[in-house]
């Protein structure tokens, strides 16, 4: 197999919906993805590559049986925020190698079952035990970034304003309201310098994608490249903020495989769990020079209508962040954009999209895992 | 919070010559590490117990103002790169994070078991 394609994508509703369990969310997402892919018979699926971070053992099997998806190998991945991106990367290679002809990828998370606010840090982790919750991890990124390059609060606010403006155009977004920079900066401080409106919300959702070979269907979107790495040791020798070098290494792998560079991409979906994450991601992907991420967002380059929109979906800041489901939510947006099916938030003439998902939280390394996927072209 | 899990946080030793942060150092390449390891993560040579300088440079910092189970906000934290030692996460007094590139000194551990550091010029 010379290339793998996304045949179809689907999502559940996004939001805090504690009454809706994983089986219902999975059925929504998978039904939409199968319909989108034109898969009428689930026996056309050779395997399921699922992902969940906090889900109970057997979450995927428990839900998939209700769709009649049984008997085939069902594998569950965990890679923090990059969980379902990892499933997609692995599914692509399973198709390319000929191991499976068609793989259903699935991400599902029911976070309100476990948390009311930020994710409780892992107490077996040296920094989690010390109370460094994820907003603190990203606040440390902002602190280090400010030390290296300078960081104006207005640049952080601009990310939130832009993505929430995009999200207002996305009927699937959990938080679809526009905000002003003043409102962003005046919202409650969570971890200096990140205010509440600079942090994504937790979410309950499922997402799905059908991956297979070339079948001559015009709506299928080619996976031009995908790359996955886990972080290197990140210790006293490190100068860069957490995640920065990992994202850059993975992006480099992806551009090399795709044979294109960031300048050739029409839109990006990147991991804006916190505003600073989008600024560092745009630099790591090469859209801006190191230290240029603030000017990039302030210039309008990354807004809808700009030269290269970043997070036209509204990103995690609007959509919410159902951890294990987020990667495929980003992929779904990229697929809709490349097909020209993104409605009011359509990037005009979009042909090539790139997705970046950054998963983390483990002390001592530069990220649990990062995935970059290039779609279309 | 469960107390059944081994506490992974670094410990200190307070002696006549002051406070030292305890950890390990590679006998081959000198790599310092504050988390227990059997062999060096870089070169796999044996490691030996080590006591690191309590002083170092603030690498990054913030103050958490959100409720995290087992921790009472607000609490300021910083990464401090100990002189000739590992980088450690410390609590710092008050709710104003210590500026990166400033000097800090570990003075001990808090009641909750976290390393505590103050600006280096301050009396402990
Ligand atoms: Zn060594």
TrEMBL record, chain A:
Keyword tags: Acyltransferase, Lipid transport, Lipid-binding, Transferase, Transport
One example GO MF annotation: lipid binding
Domain Thiolase C-terminal: 244-361
Lineage top rank: taxon: Bacteria
Gene3D superfamilies: 3.40.47.10
One Pfam family cited in the UniProt record for this chain: Thiolase_C_1
Domain Thiolase N-terminal intervals: 20-211
EC number(s) per entry: 2.3.1.176
Biological processes per GO annotation: lipid transport
Protein name listed in UniProt: propanoyl-CoA C-acyltransferase
Provenance organism: Prauserella flavalba
TrEMBL record, chain B:
Source species of the chain: Prauserella flavalba
SUPFAM superfamilies in the record: Nucleic acid-binding proteins (SSF50249)
Region of interest: Disordered: 91-124
ChsH2 C-terminal OB-fold domain: residues covered: 51-97
Protein name (database record): ChsH2 C-terminal OB-fold domain-containing protein
């Amino acid at each position: 197999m010379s290339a793998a394609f996304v045949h179809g994508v689907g999502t559940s509703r996004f939001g805090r919906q504690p009454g809706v369990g994983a089986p219902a969310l999975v059925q929504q997402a998978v039904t939409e993805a199968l319909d989108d892919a034109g898969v009428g018979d689930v026996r056309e699926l050779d395997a399921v590559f699922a992902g969940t971070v906090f889900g109970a053992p057997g979450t995927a099997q428990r839900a998939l049986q209700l769709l009649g998806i049984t008997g085939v190998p069902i594998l569950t991945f965990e890679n923090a925020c990059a969980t379902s991106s990892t499933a997609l990367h692995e599914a692509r290679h399973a198709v390319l190698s000929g191991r499976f002809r068609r793989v259903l990828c699935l991400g599902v998370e029911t976070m309100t079952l476990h948390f009311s606010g930020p994710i409780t840090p892992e107490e077996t982790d040296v920094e989690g035990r010390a109370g460094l919750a994820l907003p603190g991890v990203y606040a440390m990124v902002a602190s280090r970034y400010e030390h290296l390059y300078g960081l104006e609060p207005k640049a952080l606010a601009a990310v939130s304003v832009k993505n929430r403006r995009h999200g207002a155009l996305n009927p699937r977004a959990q938080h679809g309201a526009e905000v002003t920079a003043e409102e962003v900066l005046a919202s409650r401080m969570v971890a200096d310098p990140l205010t509440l409106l600079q942090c994504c919300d937790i979410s309950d959702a499922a997402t799905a994608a059908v991956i297979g070979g070339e079948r001559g269907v015009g709506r299928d979107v080619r996976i031009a490249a995908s790359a996955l790495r886990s972080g290197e040791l990140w210790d006293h020798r490190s100068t860069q903020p957490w995640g920065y070098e990992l994202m850059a290494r993975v992006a480099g792998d992806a551009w090399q495989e795709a044979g294109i560079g960031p300048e050739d991409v029409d839109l990006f979906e990147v991991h804006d769990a916190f505003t600073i994450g989008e600024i560092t991601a745009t630099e790591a992907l090469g859209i801006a020079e190191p230290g240029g991420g603030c000017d990039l967002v302030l210039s309008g380059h990354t807004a809808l209508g700009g030269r290269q929109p970043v997070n036209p979906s509204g990103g995690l800041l609007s959509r919410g962040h159902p951890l294990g489901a987020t990667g495929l939510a980003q992929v779904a947006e990229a697929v809709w954009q490349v097909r020209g099916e993104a409605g009011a938030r359509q990037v005009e003439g979009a042909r090539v999209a790139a997705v970046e998902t950054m998963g983390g939280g483990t002390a001592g390394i530069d990220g649990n895992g990062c995935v970059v996927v290039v779609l279309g072209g | 919070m469960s107390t059944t899990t081994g506490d992974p946080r670094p410990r200190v030793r307070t002696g006549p010559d002051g406070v030292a942060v305890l950890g390990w150092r590679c006998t081959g390449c000198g790599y310092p590490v504050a988390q227990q390891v059997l062999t060096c993560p870089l070169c796999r040579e044996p490691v030996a117990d080590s006591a690191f300088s309590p002083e170092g440079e603030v690498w990054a910092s913030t103050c958490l103002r959100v409720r995290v189970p087992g921790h009472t906000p607000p609490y300021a934290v910083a990464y401090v790169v100990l002189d000739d030692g590992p980088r450690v996460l410390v609590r710092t007094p008050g709710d104003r994070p210590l500026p990166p590139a400033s000097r800090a000194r570990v003075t001990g551990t808090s009641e909750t078991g976290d390393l505590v550091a103050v600006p280096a010029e301050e009396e402990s």
